[in-house]
Amino acid sequence: MSQSDISQVISILETLYKNSDPSAKKQANDWLQDFQKKPEAWMVVDTILRTPLSELQAEAKMFSAQTLRNKIINDLSDLDSSAVNSLKDSLIAHLKDAQSQPQSLIIQLCLSLAGIAVQSEAWADPVAEIIQQLSSDPFQIACLLEFLTVLPEEMMNERIIVSNSLFQDKSTKLLTDQAGNVIQLMVQCLQSTNLDANSHVRVLGCFNSWLKSGELTVDMIRDTPLIDLAFAALDASDNSIFETASDAVCNIIYETRDEAQVTSRGHHYSEQTNITQILLPKLASVAERMRSDKAILEENDEDRMRGYCRIFTEAGESWIYLITRFPEVFEKILAALLDCMKMPNLEIIRMLFNFWGDLSDNVLSNTEHRGHEHIRSSFSAVFESLIDIIIVHQRYPLGFDGFSLPADDSGDWSLQERDEFRDFRHNVGDVLKDCVRVVGEQVALIHPYQIISSKLSSAGSSQSVPWQEIEAPLFSLRSMGAEISPYEDNVMPKIMDIFSNFPTHPKLRYAATLVIGRYTEWTDRHPQYVEFQLKYVFEGFQDKDVAPASALAIKYLCKDCNIHLVPVWSELIGFYYQAFPGDILDDMDILQITEGLAHVINAMPDENTPTALEQLILPMISRLGEKIAAGANITENDKLDIARLVDRMGILFEFVELSKNSPGIAVLDQASVSFCQTLTQITGLFPSHPILSESVGKALRSIFDRHNLAIKDLVPNIAESLVTAFRQTGLGVYLWASRKFIKVYDNATREIWNGNTTIEQIVLTMVQSISETTLQALQGPESAQTHPEIIDEYFKLLVLVLEGFSKQLIRASIFPSIFKFGVSALSVRQVHALDSVEYFWSRLTAQAMRHLSSIKRSQEIVINSSEPHFPTLRSGTNNRQKREENDYPLDIIVRLFASEGYSIVNALFDGFLHTFPPECLKEASNSLVFIAKIIHTGPQLIAIQNLPATSHLQNYIQWINSIVSQIPDSNMPARDRELFVADLSRCFQDENWDKATILFNDFRTIYRRRSMRGLE
Prior knowledge:
This protein is mainly α and 1016 residues long.
């Protein structure tokens, strides 16, 4: 190391922090990241840290401290025990000299010391030594407390790699064995007259860190001033102190969970608990403080709201069994939780939702036990109060008009805020359902009903009532719907009777219409309301803001009340084909209504279904025919009209379900044939139209699912149209539709077309054509990145063919090209596409392994047999017969993996190390091991021409060695790479495949932590 090294680091840091040129900053950042990995960095940064601050920039000191921490995490094993000891002593010296340094630098130095303590086996008693070294003055004690604060956190730092045995040993020696000493030190700091309030804050942080580690129990600290310190700090005006205090209080409460669970099993509540004697009185005081906290009442301080909510949520969740059994003891906690629910910040109060759900579950569960029937009634008042609180929270702001917002979000309420509020209303609706379960449907319904009735009475007496005050309880009714019985006869009729009294406002009609749609099962049991509701919903179509709700309500009315709507079929079909005013309904709305009509047909007497189907389907088929008759030279609007008609027909074929003997089946079958012929025409005329192609794909799915036998004569034509359209356009929808086709018409189908064409031949022809198109279109090096959707659908299709037609696919002439393409496709970065490619390799290798294992088992049976009447088995003749019977082309698979092994292993291993997302790693490691098994056992078990019956594992090891040898020493030391290859080789030789998988995963973990670290 020279002075020039230090000067270069400082110069490049100056470029990073002060140069405005982005390219120069990037170059500086890259250089510094590379420097951090070099061995000489140890000495350079240590020298910088020893240099007085006045002689260099503050950034250099901070960079040096961060670099030390990084290297201790990643490269400490590069140093011998003597060097580690020197480094430890140097860090302690840096801390002692850091009095004038910023706190962020001190934290980095403490983290570095903690990193050595966690990893160094030679450092016998780190905590005792640091306490002895840093106890002479208040500043050093501050450093000591900082070290003790970060030590538990570093113990759990996943970036620090140690063996499991060392981790267990260090965890015991550094934390468990030292917990009592740390408590004693913290108490001494609190009692010392030489330490100021800032030191007490540091004690609080240290206390909180050790609480989080789980090493401190309430019994250990109950007689110390530490609990009082945490609760007293909640009075601090500094929000950072308040946050630490609330965190500590939460951790104290958490430590009583086991005690709470044990206590809850008794028949009577024990007063002799830490919860009762220590925490309940303190939390009661916190609740009073919360109710009068000016930071909340006057300033809407979100940090304070969040802190209080966290404390009482933790209490509720930790003591939920006790609260359920003994609600009178925890009355003040429940009251505080209700007060937390009243806080105006809707994002913060979400943290309470899980508690209310768990509490309702526990209340109902305990109520089922004999002798605990009173528990449910004990909580009725709490949950009734909760209903009223939630209804208030579900109310729109009075300044919001209900639908529109300025495009530039310049109003009082932005588009994002509106969307967040909508999400909140739906999420808090789940809590309302919990309330209904506890208090019962009648009591729950009374609350919104009384609010609505009261507001309507006020409106009737000429008082102005904002629509928001009626809409909120209406919305709550919709939220409760899932828990309301269709047989509820006390409150629901009263609610439905007041619908006609609502003031005229689109948002009220919108909400009321959605309530109708939510309670259609109830309406089915109360058909006297069908006529009014249908009229009310139809009237909503006159308003573009209400129309979407009306379409949804129509769908559910038709679905759940279909038997009651059969008499008004003529009105429904007339409404369906009438010209809707302007742009009142969008395409999705019309599809909702289409589905509804399908449900009504399902309820008709069999003799009426043919006429109804003809009334619904024939006009659409006729219009489709008219549009298509014009040929390819039609307008864009005509193409979109065709897409809309196809979508509606697809919905009908998806949802019309008739009995097997219904005369309507003939109409459906005939229509499905005609519709499929039309779809193939559309595909031929407009194969590249993005919207039309999607519509055709969805419609074919419905036909394949419901009417595949009716259209069996068209199967060859449909298959040809799909592959032709894909060849012409390369659109993924045709791959998706082909996949659906193959899934329906799998190898179980024995139908023969044109006298000699089997489904097997049709599928293989499809795969051949689709593969040729895909491989030709995606030849370029970046093609996988530009067409991930094609990669995704193509490999999903291949997996499906592997499952149904594996032998035929592997024997196909194009399969070697597919195999090679699968290697290059592993470079795709889009997660779903990559997952499909990896799954293909996983299925291919797993399938081959199953067949190899089967052969191996059969050979072992032969070898182990001692029966005299099996003399020919030992000769191998029977093995050959077995192989002939097993028609799976293992020889092709083994040969491909033997010849293309390096390419596939390189692609898998490179992606495994660098680019694969977490969800793809398991498939990758499994495939890497399966490939080794295949090329190891395959040639030994089956005779393959020109492929020696010897293990190819040495080749595999050479491939891996070649790959890892390219890793720079700065990212992974050569000795670690060599050790990995040697260990992997031993696993393969011992056929310890599970351990090989673990080795791959461990190597990746270490490599990623060492090489992917960036400049902090």
